[in-house]
């Protein structure tokens, strides 16, 4: 049975492995064996999916206390648009995705996010958890995720998790991005050895030693990326990464990147499979075009996203000057900057349909230039 679990960790979509695992569960008298059978039946009988789902949900309700424990089961009862603590989806009889956060209204004492994460990790129901999203730890004037990050670091390896989102909240409705502190996430990479998708949203982000064998997508959304985090990106060793999106932010909210700091990242030494790169929400972007154009990394990219920043006609002039270096791109996104209609048209005439330009915040005649997310 352990060998089957390892096989599923390696490929959670392996239906043959799930079939064998379901038989093992049924033989052991575990009702989750029937849930695995129902999930597999939906593949062959999609017209029966709704009825099969109803049966599965009835079984889950019957055993939820046993599988999740009383604290998690109680947390699931706290519902509402803003008052929920935990949201779970199930597949093959196990929790497939989990969103955990602090309720917005303290109607009664509720467990902390850290406690809920520990409970979830201990639960047999989370054995094959695929996706984990962590929302706000509190609803005060500032949300501090550092204890959550420390909790993740101490929980032990969680090999089933493929997707991790730290900072799962709506901005600005629930919290401004700069009103949060994420802390140093460098130690959690080893906790999730099969992680493929990582998104971090918040302020005070430190990336530590950014090494991971299987990570394919990295998204960092912030209003102020510190110099140490930029340095971590430049030293990253991410051999499977194909998509990287980085928001740099505003110097008044902690952005410390300079154009020269991007040099090590743009060498691409630790990013052999990177195809989509977003250098976004950057107030230094005009001064980065020459460095991007001269970089080794550019030639392997298919998509370059320079949106949400302060790109002006000065930056467009440099893009046009280096047009031959950008000609191979399938998409060059310059939306949400400060470009006049004339500047966009000149760029399109030079680089063609690869240029993506939706709304602009203004043009080069504005008196103030600002990134799209600065607080």
Walk me through what this model shows:
With 375 residues, the protein is α/β, with parallel strands linked by helices. It has a domain of 169 residues: Ribonuclease Inhibitor (Leucine-rich repeat, LRR (right-handed beta-alpha superhelix), Alpha-Beta Horseshoe), CATH 3.80.10.10. It has 13 helices and 15 strands. An eleven-stranded mixed sheet has the order 1-2-3-5-8-10-11-12-13-14-15. A two-stranded parallel ribbon has the order 4-6. It has a two-stranded parallel sheet with strand order 7-9. The termini are far apart.
Topology of this structure?
Blueprint: H1 2-10, H2 15-27, H3 32-44, H4 49-68, H5 70-76, E1 86-91, E2 94-100, H6 113-122, E3 131-134, E4 143-144, H7 146-154, E5 163-166, E6 180-181, E7 183-184, E8 197-201, E9 205-206, E10 217-221, H8 227-234, E11 243-249, H9 263-267, E12 276-282, H10 289-293, E13 303-305, H11 313-321, H12 323-326, E14 331-333, H13 341-351, E15 355-356
Parallel strand pairs: 2-3, 3-5, 4-6, 5-8, 7-9, 8-10, 10-11, 11-12, 12-13, 13-14, 14-15
Antiparallel strand pairs: 1-2
Helix pairs in contact: 1-2, 2-3, 3-4, 4-5, 6-7, 11-13
């Amino acid at each position: 049975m352990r060998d089957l679990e390892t096989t599923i960790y390696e490929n959670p979509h392996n239906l043959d492995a799930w079939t064998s695992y379901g038989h093992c569960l049924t033989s052991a008298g575990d009702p989750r064996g029937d849930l695995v059978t129902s999930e597999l039946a939906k593949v062959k009988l999609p017209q029966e999916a709704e009825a099969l789902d109803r049966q599965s949900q009835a079984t889950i309700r019957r055993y939820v206390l046993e599988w999740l424990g009383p604290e998690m089961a109680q947390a699931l009862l706290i519902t509402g648009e803003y008052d929920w603590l935990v949201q779970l989806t199930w597949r093959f009889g196990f929790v497939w995705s989990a969103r955990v956060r602090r309720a917005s209204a303290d109607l009664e004492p509720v467990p902390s996010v850290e406690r809920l994460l520990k409970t979830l990790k201990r639960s047999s129901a989370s054995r094959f958890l695929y996706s984990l999203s962590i929302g706000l730890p509190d609803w005060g004037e500032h949300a501090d995720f550092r204890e959550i990050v420390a909790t993740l670091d101490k929980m032990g390896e969680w090999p089933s998790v493929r997707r991790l989102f730290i900072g799962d909240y709506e901005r600005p409705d629930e919290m401004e991005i700069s009103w949060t502190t994420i802390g140093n996430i460098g130690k959690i990479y080893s906790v999730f050895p099969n992680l493929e998708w990582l998104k971090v949203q918040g302020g005070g982000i430190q990336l530590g030693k950014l090494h991971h064998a299987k990570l394919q997508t990295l998204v960092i959304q912030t209003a102020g990326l510190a110099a140490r985090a930029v340095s971590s990106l430049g030293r990253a060793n991410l051999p499977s990464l194909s998509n990287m999106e980085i928001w740099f932010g505003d110097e008044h909210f902690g952005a410390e990147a300079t154009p020269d700091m991007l040099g090590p990242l743009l060498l691409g030494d630790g990013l052999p499979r990177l195809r989509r790169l977003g250098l976004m929400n950057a107030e230094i972007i005009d001064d980065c075009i020459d460095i991007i154009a001269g970089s080794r990394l550019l030639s392997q990219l298919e998509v370059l996203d320079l949106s949400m920043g302060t790109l002006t006609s000065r930056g467009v002039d440099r893009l046009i000057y280096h047009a031959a270096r950008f000609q191979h791109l399938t998409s060059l996104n310059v939306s949400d900057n400060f470009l006049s209609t004339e500047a966009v048209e000149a760029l399109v005439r030079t680089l063609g349909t690869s240029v993506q330009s939706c709304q602009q915040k203004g043009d080069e005649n504005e008196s103030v230039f600002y990134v799209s997310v600065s607080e």
